[in-house]
């Protein structure tokens, strides 16, 4: 076994170093080779980190950066690879446990639960952290799965879709399941995910960009995305989460409100795009 880890970064040096440190601090605990590449997608200030391979590219977007990183991992003859976002942090002992997971399950892809957190305490940050942690239930089914498998056998990995800058991390999972690959969700390990500060204005702007990309893109199935859209996600109705709604009614109402507003925003973007296309035709 040789593990490759891929991280991409763009103008977030304040948080990417924390992610890289969480990997580096575990290297003495493991007995297998590891290759770590961080692709700097044209940040204004080039990332410097002496312990790992830093690949600097021109700014083209995260999908291109990830594709370049996968090329490096292939060149290093890794058997498995894990891709992370810059705002993720590996908990202590993660890499040691990861090897046990790979040896215990014969699977092409692994969905690893994410534990959301934030140092901020405003309402929408608390709502987003609460909503993100609803995914932690042990649920994985093709019809409703919205989580990305971040750990893959290199030989099985379907690849990232070039130029797709929204929902790009879930596409390998969707494609892999369609092609008959085995993708499972594990509970033995988890990844910390920093939601940072969330304001409704920033959330709406970010999701509007994602929705626009999804509507305009011809590189992914709209149905594959829509059937995993907000209220259609089965994990929301898992008994463990139903108990959370009762314990935290204000946050649960916040999640419903967030979903309703974002759904209206999605419908507005879709309608606007369709009207513009008809005018152009």
Automatic annotation (TrEMBL):
Cross-referenced InterPro entries: Glyco_trans_2-like, Glycosyltransf_2, Nucleotide-diphossugar_trans
Transmembrane segments: 250-269
Domain Glycosyltransferase 2-like: 5-131
GO molecular function: transferase activity
Domain of life, per lineage: Bacteria
The protein's name in its UniProt record: Glycosyl transferase
Keywords: Membrane, Transferase, Transmembrane, Transmembrane helix
A family per Pfam: Glycos_transf_2
Keyword Transferase part of the UniProt annotation: yes
CDD domains membership: Glyco_tranf_GTA_type
């Amino acid at each position: 076994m040789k593990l490759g880890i891929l991280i991409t970064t763009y103008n977030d040096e304040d948080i990417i170093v924390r992610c890289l440190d969480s990997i580096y601090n575990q290297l003495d605990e493991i007995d297998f080779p590891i290759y770590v590449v961080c692709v700097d997608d044209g940040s204004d200030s080039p990332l410097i980190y002496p312990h790992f391979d830093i690949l600097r590219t021109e700014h083209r977007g995260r999908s291109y950066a990830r594709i370049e990183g996968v090329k490096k991992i292939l060149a290093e003859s890794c058997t498995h690879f894990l891709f992370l976002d810059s705002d993720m942090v590996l908990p202590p002992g993660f890499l040691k446990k990861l090897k046990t997971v790979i040896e215990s399950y014969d699977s092409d892809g692994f969905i690893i639960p994410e534990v959301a957190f934030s140092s901020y305490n405003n309402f929408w940050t608390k709502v987003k952290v609460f909503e993100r942690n609803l995914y932690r239930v042990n649920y994985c089914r093709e019809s409703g799965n919205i989580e990305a498998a971040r750990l893959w056998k290199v030989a099985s990995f379907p690849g990232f879709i070039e130029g797709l800058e929204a929902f790009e991390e879930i596409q390998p999972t969707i494609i892999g399941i369609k092609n008959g690959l085995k993708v499972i969700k594990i509970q033995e390990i988890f990844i910390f995910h920093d939601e940072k500060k969330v304001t409704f204005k920033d959330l709406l702007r970010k999701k509007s960009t994602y929705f626009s990309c999804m509507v305009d893109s011809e590189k992914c199935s709209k149905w594959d995305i829509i059937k995993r859209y907000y209220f259609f996600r089965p994990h929301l109705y898992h008994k463990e989460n139903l108990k959370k709604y009762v314990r935290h009614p204000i946050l649960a109402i916040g999640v419903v409100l967030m979903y309703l507003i974002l759904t209206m925003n999605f419908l507005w973007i879709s309608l606007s795009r369709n009207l513009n296309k008809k005018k152009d035709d």
